[in-house]
Automatic annotation (TrEMBL):
Stored InterPro entries: A-D-PHexomutase_a/b/a-I, A-D-PHexomutase_a/b/a-I/II/III, A-D-PHexomutase_a/b/a-II, A-D-PHexomutase_a/b/a-III, A-D-PHexomutase_C_sf, A-D-PHexomutase_CS, Alpha-D-phosphohexomutase_SF, PGM
Transmembrane annotation, as ranges: none
Domain spans labelled Alpha-D-phosphohexomutase alpha/beta/alpha: 15-152, 185-287, 296-408
Keywords recorded for this protein, A-Z: Isomerase, Magnesium, Metal-binding, Phosphoprotein
Enzyme kind, highest EC tier: isomerase
EC code: 5.4.2.2
SUPFAM superfamilies named among the record's database cross-references: Phosphoglucomutase, C-terminal domain, Phosphoglucomutase, first 3 domains
Protein name as annotated: phosphoglucomutase (alpha-D-glucose-1,6-bisphosphate-dependent)
A Pfam family hit: PGM1_C_vert_fung
GO molecular function: phosphoglucomutase activity
Xref: PROSITE patterns: PGM_PMM (PS00710)
Catalytically driven reaction(s): alpha-D-glucose 1-phosphate = alpha-D-glucose 6-phosphate
Taxonomic placement: Bacteria, Pseudomonadati, Pseudomonadota, Alphaproteobacteria, Sphingomonadales
Length: 544
């Protein structure tokens, strides 16, 4: 019998897991009992069976190691048989997903606040992934939240911290803790998916790239795969050491936070490919020489070319995208005669579709792309698929994009974010708009006429579960649209996201400025929702 210590506790408010787990300021997690309550609520809900294995890893941000030590003791007290933890406490989110699947763990704790900054005054997060390697579905996260409201104790054992930096096994009060190489299993998986020989040959013939790991978790993965296994020059990977504060940067691979990479790619000395990933390694940014590829377009282009990668040849079952993601992928699905699924925002909604074999590739406008190889989006995977496509097609990123638009037409796309606005005012905007949706069809805004206005609701085709209120959609009669949604990942106030999209057929202007192509939709969004009045902002804080 393990000697279990029961610690008395009382509930904390606001432990509802959001889009991607519980995400709060580090100081909130540091309150005595706060983290422990949440982890205990997870264990109380998932009830580990005898012999169960738990995977633990994170993106290396501040507070990661402290929580890992605590979680290991609590796992032992809650009856786990084994814990697998990445060396140094590191596991990228997609690598954690793979490790859960490969070692048939019952689940995993992924410690990350993704692309949010790290450090004592910044963000931390805990997410529970289930045995398929994907984020827990809403039934589970809902039950965890309920449990946090009544929790009155958490369980631990008396044991010293383990050495997270040495690969090997330790026994902690009857439970085996294996510290594993965080990169090897994942890198091996990538070799089974892509044509590494073709990429190596392209590199030998002079192909160059820059991968910006943003001081976050993908550094070790990129060094191993890109530089060691694929032969790209040393120095290809920049900011490649995971730091607790990400070097003070905001590890979000977009044009604002990866501006240096963007500037390089738009300049005379640009390498052939520029790429970046976020804090926990699940997002990606792709920039060719002189050509930024929007995440929505990247999904469409990857899907259209996925057959060049050995593991995907002849088996594209379907494509899925989140609702706010542009419809570029829909046109590819139509041309390839495979189904397209439109899900709410949040990778977890792809899990059932992937498990049921209904889709092979998925993607989101929020810089996430992935496939059925794991159950998370995967930044390094997306970069490798792009490399495989470039190697197989023998042309650059810009040429791939131009060919794609010439065949399918182009979905001009932008997202306007209003960050850190007052929560009540943000809710008032959304509630007000929701109440007026019925009046909008038929009304004109500049040259646009509203065809449909609704609140997006999703019925999961696999388990029939319904997720309502997933964003407000205004569809215009020319096929363009505006979508309004509140972010589910922020930690301060509310963030309003306005997603803008217009479509130009192959015969139209395929090389215009995005802002110009969306001017009518931008005006309509303001007129319909009164953004300036509600937010007090004359312009968005971030445009991606
Ligand atoms: C996380 C999830 C993504 C989702 C994104 C949305 O990154 O993993 O699947 O698309 O959050 O974030 P938002 O801030 O728009 O709710
Ligand atoms: Zn992330």
């Amino acid at each position: 019998m393990r000697h279990v210590v029961t610690m008395k506790s009382t509930p904390f408010e606001g432990q509802a897991p959001g889009t991607s787990g519980l995400r709060k300021k580090v100081r909130v997690f540091q309150q005595p009992g706060y983290t422990e309550n949440f982890i205990q609520a997870v264990f109380d809900v998932v009830k580990p069976e005898a012999g169960a294995t738990l995977v633990i890893g994170g993106d290396g941000r501040f507070h990661n190691r402290t929580v890992i030590q605590q979680a290991i003791r609590m796992a032992a007290a809650n009856g786990y048989d084994r814990v697998l933890v990445g060396q140094g406490g590191i596991l990228s989110t997609p690598a954690a997903s793979h490790v859960i699947r490969k070692y048939e763990a019952s689940g995993g704790l992924v410690l990350s606040a993704s692309h949010n900054p790290g450090g004592p005054d910044e963000d931390f997060g805990i997410k529970y992934n289930i045995t398929n390697g994907g984020p827990a579905p809403e039934t589970v996260t809902g039950a965890i939240h309920e449990r946090t409201k009544t929790i009155d104790r958490w369980l631990t054992v008396e044991a010293d911290d383990i050495d997270l930096d040495a690969v090997g096994e330790t026994v902690v009060v009857g439970m085996t803790v294996s510290v594993i190489d965080p990169v090897a299993d994942y890198a091996d998986l990538m070799e089974t998916l892509f044509d590494f020989a073709a990429i190596r040959a392209m590199v030998k013939s002079g192909f160059t790239m820059r991968f910006d790991a943003m001081g976050a978790v993908t550094g070790p993965y990129a060094h191993e795969i890109l530089e060691r296994r694929l032969g790209l020059a040393a120095g290809t990977v920049v900011n490649g050491t995971p730091l607790e504060d990400f070097g003070g940067h905001h590890p979000d691979p977009n044009l604002i936070h990866a501006k240096e990479l963007y500037d390089l790619m738009m300049g005379a000395d640009a390498p052939d490919l520029g790429a970046a990933s976020d804090g926990d390694g699940d997002r990606n940014l792709i920039i060719g020489r002189g050509r930024f590829i929007t995440p929505s377009d990247s999904l469409a282009m990857l899907a259209a070319n996925i057959e060049v990668a050995p593991a995907y040849r002849g088996r594209l079952a379907g494509i899925a995208r989140s609702m706010p993601t542009s419809a570029a992928a829909d046109r590819v699905a139509e041309a390839l005669n495979v189904p397209i699924f439109e899900t709410p925002t949040g990778w977890k909604f792809f899990g059932n579709l992937l498990d049921a074999g209904k889709v092979t590739i998925c993607g989101e406008e929020s810089a996430g792309t992935g496939s059925d190889h794991v159950r998370e989006k995967d930044g390094v995977w997306a970069v490798l698929l792009w490399l495989n496509i470039l190697a197989a097609r023998g042309v650059g990123v810009d040429a791939i994009a131009r060919e794609h638009w010439a065949r399918f037409g182009r979905n001009y796309y932008a997202r306007h974010d209003y960050e850190g606005i007052d929560t009540d005012r943000a809710n008032a905007l959304m509630e007000g708009l929701k109440a007026r949706l019925g009046e909008l069809p038929g009304r004109g805004f500049g040259p646009l006429t509203v065809a449909v206005a609704d609140s997006f609701s999703y019925t999961d085709p696999v388990d029939g579960s319904i997720s309502a209120n997933q964003g407000l959609r205004i569809l215009f009669d020319d096929g363009s649209r505006v979508v309004f949604r509140l972010s589910g990942t922020g930690t301060q106030g509310a963030t309003l996201r306005v997603y803008l999209e217009s479509y130009v057929p192959p015969s139209g202007d395929l090389d215009a400025e995005t802002a110009a192509m969306l001017a009518h939709q931008i005006n309509a969004a303001e007129e319909i929702a009164g953004i300036a009045e509600h937010t007090g902002r004359a312009a968005p804080d971030v445009i991606t």
